C-alpha cells in the first residue's frame, strides 16, 4: 500500500482539492482506491468535505491540515479523503444528512468519520486544532477497543438515512394549489421582517425562490401584501452591503439582519437566482431598481465569471491577502485620499461611510444611507466616484476565482441570461446564454450522459439530478427568449435521459443520484429547497412545460407524481417547498399557451415577443412557428401567419382564441387568469 502513503491530490482538477495538495496529510480523492486502502489497513476514513471559496475550510486547513501533529495521527490511524462538495453533491447530501441525524448542525467544512464500509459514526463541521487532535485520538481508541459500539452507531445512522430517503410520509397530497399558496403566504407573512426585509433573523440568506413564489402569489391573487414583502426584501438587499455597489453581484449571505455585513464569497448560483428574481420583479412592477440590479449582476458575471469558451465559472472567494472581505472594503481615510473632495462629499451623502467604519479595523462595507434614493447612485459625482473606486479596487489582489464550470449552475445562469435578454431587449445576455449552452453541449454532453464538471479541458463525474433539471429549465427559457428551436429539442433529449437515469417508476419522483453511482449508502430524493431550489421540484415544472409543448400527457402525469410524492409536507412546512408550490400552481392553473408565427428576423416579430417578455406571465409557455423551417414542436404545428403579418395564437385553459396580429390584443387575453383569495 505504499502508493497511498502520500498526498494524492496533486493531479486533481478541483480547485478545492488542489488547495490541499501541499498538506502533509496523505489526502486521497473520493473513490475505490481510498476505500480499498481503508479495508486493507482496517482503519476508519476521515472524510473532509468543503469547497474552494469556503472561509472556514481555509481556516481549518491552516490550523490543522498544514500541522504536522494532526497529519501524523491522520496518516497513522485513518485514511484521509477530501471531497469537493460542488463536484460530488451526492456524497455531500448523504453525509450532511448523516451529521444532522447525529444531532449536529450542518455546514462546511464537513467532517465525518466512516467505517471502511462508508457508514458514518461521528461527524461535525469545523473543529479547532486542539479539539480535533483530542477527537482523533479518542476515535482511534474507540476503533481499536470498542468496535461493536462503533458498528452499532454506524447501523443506527444508516437506518436513519434510509428512513430519510423515503417519501415524505407515505401519504399522497390531498392539498389543492390554493391551499398551498395560502399556507405559503401566511407562513411568509409570519416570518417577514417588515423593517429590514427578508424572513427570520440573522444570518440572512437571499430568499430567491420564496420571493419568486410571492410574485406568483401576487399575480394569482392581486394581494398587495405579497408584492410588498417581495419588494421590501429585494430593495433592502440591493441597498445593503450584501450587494456589490461598485461591480454588481451579490455575496453569499448577510451576517446581520440589515443585509449590511456580508460573508463576501460570490457564488454563481446565488447570482443566477437573484438576477432571475430581480428580472421578474421588474416585469411585475416596472420598478427600474430591479432592472438595474439584474443588469449589474449579469454584467459582473459576463466580465468576471465567464470563460473564453462561454462557460460560467463557479465562485469567487471571500478572502484575499489572508483576510475576509479585504478586497471589498474601504476606510474613510482611503476614500478621502483617492476621491476629489467634491466627489467624496457626494459619495458620503449617498453611502453610509464613517471614520469609525462598520467592519473590522475601521473599514466600511458600502451600503446606501437610509435617506438616499436608489437613483442617487447615478448622480454624476457619485457615478464618477463609483467608477474611480472600481478601477482602484481592480488593482488590489483579487480573491481566488474557482474557475471550474458546473453544469447545474450553468443551467441556472443560462436561464437568467435568457430571461433578462428578452425582458430587457439586450442581445448580450441572449448571446451569452446561447454560448454557454453550446459549451455545455460540446464539453459535457457525452453519449447521452451529462457530466457535471469541466476545468482545464477535463470533464468528469456523472451528472446528478440538478445538472439535468437546471439545464432543461435553462434551455426552455433560452428557447422562449430566442425562438431557436434547437435548444428546446436538446431540452427534450435531456429530459428523456433524466427520466431514464433518475426516475422512480414505482413511487414517483426522481432520485438525486443515478442507481449506477457506486459507493453511495442510499439514494435520496430532494424535494425541499436549500440554497438552490429543489431539483425534483424544478423537474416537475420542466415536465409541465414540456407537456404543453409536446401535447403529451405522460409529462404531466410525471410532474403530478413528483408533487404528490411530497405528501402533505408542503402544506405543513411551506417555507421549505417554495419551488414545489410553484410547480403545483402551474399544474392546477389554466396555463396560457402562446404561439408566435412569423419571421424571427422581422421587426414586428421581435416587437411582439418583446412586449410579451416584458410582462410577468409565470404560468405561460411561448412557442414559435414559421421562423424559417418546419417546426418539430406539436404546440406550434399548423400555425401560420395571417396576411404575412406576425400572428399570435393564444389558448387559455381549454379555450383557444381567434388568432390576432396585434400584440396588444394578445396581452388583453392574458389578463383572464384564475384568481385565488388568501
Describe this structure in words.
- The protein has 678 residues and is an alpha+beta fold.
- It has four domains: 2-164, Glutaredoxin (3-Layer(aba) Sandwich), CATH 3.40.30.10; 177-319 and 402-588, Glycosyltransferase, CATH 1.50.10.10; 328-395, no CATH class; 592-669.
- It contains 25 helices and 22 strands.
- Strands 1-3-2-4-5 form a five-stranded mixed sheet, sandwiched between helices. Strands 15, 16, 17 and 18 form a four-stranded antiparallel sheet that branches. Strands 20-19-21-22 form a four-stranded mixed sheet, sandwiched between helices.
- Strand 19 (592-597), helix 24 (603-613) and strand 20 (620-625) form a beta-alpha-beta unit.
- Helix 8 packs across helix 9 (208-221), helix 18 packs antiparallel against helix 19 (485-502) and helix 18 crosses helix 20 (535-550).
- The longest helix is centred in the first third of the chain and has 18 residues, at 147-164.
- The N and C termini lie far apart (66 Å).
- The relative contact order is 0.09.
Number of strands: 22
Structural class: alpha+beta
Q: Give the spatial strand order of the biggest sheet.
A: 1-3-2-4-5
Globally, the shape reads: globular
The parts where pLDDT drops under 50 for at least 5 residues are none
Amino acid at each position: 500500500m505504499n502508493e497511498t502513503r502520500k498526498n494524492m491530490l496533486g493531479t486533481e482538477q478541483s480547485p478545492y482539492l488542489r488547495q490541499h495538495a501541499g498538506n502533509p496529510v496523505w489526502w486521497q480523492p473520493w473513490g475505490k482506491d481510498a476505500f480499498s486502502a481503508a479495508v486493507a489497513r482496517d482503519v476508519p476514513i476521515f472524510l473532509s468535505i468543503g469547497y474552494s471559496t469556503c472561509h472556514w475550510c481555509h481556516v481549518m486547513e491552516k490550523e490543522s491540515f498544514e500541522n504536522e501533529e494532526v497529519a501524523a495521527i491522520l496518516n497513522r490511524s485513518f485514511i484521509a479523503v477530501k471531497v469537493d462538495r460542488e463536484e460530488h453533491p451526492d456524497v455531500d447530501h448523504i453525509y450532511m444528512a448523516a451529521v444532522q441525524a447525529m444531532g449536529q448542525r450542518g455546514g462546511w467544512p464537513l467532517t465525518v468519520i466512516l467505517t471502511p464500509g462508508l457508514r458514518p459514526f461521528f461527524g461535525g463541521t469545523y473543529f479547532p486544532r486542539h479539539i480535533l487532535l483530542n477527537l482523533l485520538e479518542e476515535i482511534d481508541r474507540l476503533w481499536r477497543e470498542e468496535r461493536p459500539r462503533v458498528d452499532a452507531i454506524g447501523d443506527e445512522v444508516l437506518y436513519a438515512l434510509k428512513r430519510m430517503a423515503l417519501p415524505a410520509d407515505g401519504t399522497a397530497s390531498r392539498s389543492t394549489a390554493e391551499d398551498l399558496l395560502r399556507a405559503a403566504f401566511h407562513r411568509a407573512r409570519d416570518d417577514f421582517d417588515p423593517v429590514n426585509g427578508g424572513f427570520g433573523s440573522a444570518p440572512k440568506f437571499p430568499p430567491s425562490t420564496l420571493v419568486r413564489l410571492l410574485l406568483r402569489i401576487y399575480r394569482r391573487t392581486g394581494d398587495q401584501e405579497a408584492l410588498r414583502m417581495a419588494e421590501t426584501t429585494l430593495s433592502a438587499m440591493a441597498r445593503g452591503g450584501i450587494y456589490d455597489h461598485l461591480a454588481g453581484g451579490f455575496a453569499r449571505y448577510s451576517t446581520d439582519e440589515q443585509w449590511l455585513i456580508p460573508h463576501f464569497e460570490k457564488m454563481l448560483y446565488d447570482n443566477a437566482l437573484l438576477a432571475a428574481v430581480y428580472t421578474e420583479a421588474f416585469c411585475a412592477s416596472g420598478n427600474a431598481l430591479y432592472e438595474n440590479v439584474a443588469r449589474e449582476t449579469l454584467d459582473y458575471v459576463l466580465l468576471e465569471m465567464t470563460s473564453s469558451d462561454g462557460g460560467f465559472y463557479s465562485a469567487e472567494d471571500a478572502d484575499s491577502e489572508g483576510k475576509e472581505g479585504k478586497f471589498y472594503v474601504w476606510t474613510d481615510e482611503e476614500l478621502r485620499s483617492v476621491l476629489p473632495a467634491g466627489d467624496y462629499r457626494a459619495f458620503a451623502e449617498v453611502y453610509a461611510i464613517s471614520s469609525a467604519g462598520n467592519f473590522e479595523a475601521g473599514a466600511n462595507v458600502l451600503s446606501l444611507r437610509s435617506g438616499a434614493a436608489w437613483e442617487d447612485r447615478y448622480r454624476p459625482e457619485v457615478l464618477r466616484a463609483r467608477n474611480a473606486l472600481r478601477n482602484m479596487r481592480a488593482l488590489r489582489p483579487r480573491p481566488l476565482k474557482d474557475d471550474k464550470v458546473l453544469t447545474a449552475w450553468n443551467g441556472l445562469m443560462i436561464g437568467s441570461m435568457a430571461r433578462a435578454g428578452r425582458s430587457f431587449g439586450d442581445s448580450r445576455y441572449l448571446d451569452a446564454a446561447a454560448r454557454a449552452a453550446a459549451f455545455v453541449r460540446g464539453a459535457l454532453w457525452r453519449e447521452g450522459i451529462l457530466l457535471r464538471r469541466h476545468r482545464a479541458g477535463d470533464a468528469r463525474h456523472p451528472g446528478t439530478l440538478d445538472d439535468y433539471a437546471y439545464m432543461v429549465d435553462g434551455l426552455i427559457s433560452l428557447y422562449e427568449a430566442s425562438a431557436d428551436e434547437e435548444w428546446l429539442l436538446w431540452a427534450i433529449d435531456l429530459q428523456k435521459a433524466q427520466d431514464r437515469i433518475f426516475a422512480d417508476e414505482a413511487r414517483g419522483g426522481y432520485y438525486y443520484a443515478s442507481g449506477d453511482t457506486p459507493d453511495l449508502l442510499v439514494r435520496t430524493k430532494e424535494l425541499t429547497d436549500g440554497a438552490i431550489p429543489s431539483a425534483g421540484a424544478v423537474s416537475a415544472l420542466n415536465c409541465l412545460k414540456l407537456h404543453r409543448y409536446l401535447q403529451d400527457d405522460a409529462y404531466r402525469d410525471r410532474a403530478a407524481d413528483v408533487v404528490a410524492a411530497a405528501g402533505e409536507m408542503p402544506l405543513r412546512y411551506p417555507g421549505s417547498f417554495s419551488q414545489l408550490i410553484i410547480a403545483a400552481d402551474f399544474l392546477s392553473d389554466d396555463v396560457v399557451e402562446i404561439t408566435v408565427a412569423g419571421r424571427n428576423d422581422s421587426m414586428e416579430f421581435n416587437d411582439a415577443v418583446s412586449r410579451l417578455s416584458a410582462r410577468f406571465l409565470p404560468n405561460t409557455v411561448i412557442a414559435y412557428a414559421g421562423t424559417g423551417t418546419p417546426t418539430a414542436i406539436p404546440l406550434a404545428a399548423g400555425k401560420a401567419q395571417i396576411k404575412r403579418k406576425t400572428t399570435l395564437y393564444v389558448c387559455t385553459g381549454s379555450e383557444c382564441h381567434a388568432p390576432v396580429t396585434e400584440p396588444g390584443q394578445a396581452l388583453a387575453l392574458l389578463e383572464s387568469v384564475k384568481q385565488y383569495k388568501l
